[in-house]
Amino acid sequence: MKINSSLKQMIAYNPTKQTFQMSALNLCQKIETNDITLPLYQRDISWSDKKAVDLLNYQLNGKAPVSPISVNKISNPSHSVAQITLVNRVIIDSMKVGQLSVTDRTTTLNNKL
User: Fold this and answer.
1) How far is Cα 102 from Cα 83, in angstroms, rounded to an integer?
2) pLDDT for the residue numbered 108
3) Rounded distance, CA 70 to CA 15, Å?
């Protein structure tokens, strides 16, 4: 099969440069200080509070692993997508180098932590 050379380059790229573990408490602290944010384009939460709490309790009580959270580390704030706070969805005026931006669909739990 013939594959475009630029497509080959894109599919060979591995975006995972770093992994780390973080406690739920540390995650909450980073959310509170806006060290973990959300890209502006993320949709609002569609789960009810009860449904999100039930899932969080299910995970924290050891019945299922807590899902990993995919994030991008912002290295150049002037070239990044606008960010909003996780809790109340307010646009952040000034982003920091090293700020983490959630890029996956775990925002329901992140918003409830």
Assistant:
1) 10
2) 46
3) 11
Order of strands, edge to edge, in the sheet holding 71-73? Answer: 71-73, 100-102, 36-39, 83-84
What would the DSSP string read from start to end of 83-103?
A: EE-TTT-PBPSS--TT-EEE-
Output the six-digit token pair for 8: 């080959």
DSSP3 helix / strand / coil % (the chain, rounded to 5): 35, 10, 55
CB 107 within 8 A of CB 44: no
Percent of the chain with pLDDT over 90: 7
Q: Which residues pair with 100 in a beta bridge?
A: 36, 73
- 31, pLDDT greater than 80: yes
